[in-house]
Write a structure and sequence with these properties.
transmembrane helix, 265 residues, transmembrane, RING-type E3 ubiquitin transferase, 6-stranded mixed β-sheet, alpha+beta, membrane, 27% strand
Length: 265
Amino acid sequence: MSSTDLLVMGGVTLFGLLLLGGGLSIAAVGASRVRTARTLRAAGPVSLRAVPETSGFVEFGGTAQEHDGQTLEAPITGTTCLAYTVQSRARDGSDEEGEPIWTVDGRQSAGVPFAVEDGVDRVVVDPANAVFSGTDWVRSETTWTDHSALSPDERDRLQTTELPKAVAPTDESRQYREQRLEAGHDVHVFGGTVRESSDHDGGRHTPVTVAGDDWLEITTGGEPTVLADRQRSGVLYLIFGGLLSIPGSGFTLAGVVGLLSTTVL
């Protein structure tokens, strides 16, 4: 038995354990996503009146409205809104037909607490750390606009987003787009857990905040694909985690066998 052999086998075992642990962790995230998507799909959206009594992740929809007068100024248009997402993309050459190839290289979102109403009940959503995934932003989005075509006021507002090269001189190879959630828009909320507010009034004024695995996704209009996308990503996590665990198991087993044989010999 040599110290070199022990070090080598120990290194192989450690490497295998790291691979195995990483693979199992990724697979666990995937399993959680799949389980959450299936649970919410089976339960379906709950009414706003039932939201305060819902345990675990929740799904509901309604009409977005201001809460306590809180609003935002959209970074490009300056439009008053409840939440926005602004994206940037850079031209990355041209294809065979001479059409420009664009690569999205930046995205920033912001939102303020807003109410969701159905004409009878009201729930307040705190979008801190939420993902805004508009499926029907057509009526509240700008087209991709060249940086050079933005007005001085638009460029000044855009600088607050910290998107790539937003503060640079006018650049024709860079474009920006804004998407907004405004009062009166249909909205759908996925994830988050229920937390009673201090101004609770019989179950009609309950903020929904990020909890659990910190998943809260807000979408507008259309037929939301959030649950299908989450299940799909969960399956990919499971596959990748499983593939990573296989060599991890092999290295771990080889290292352990090597250590045992080296120790015995």
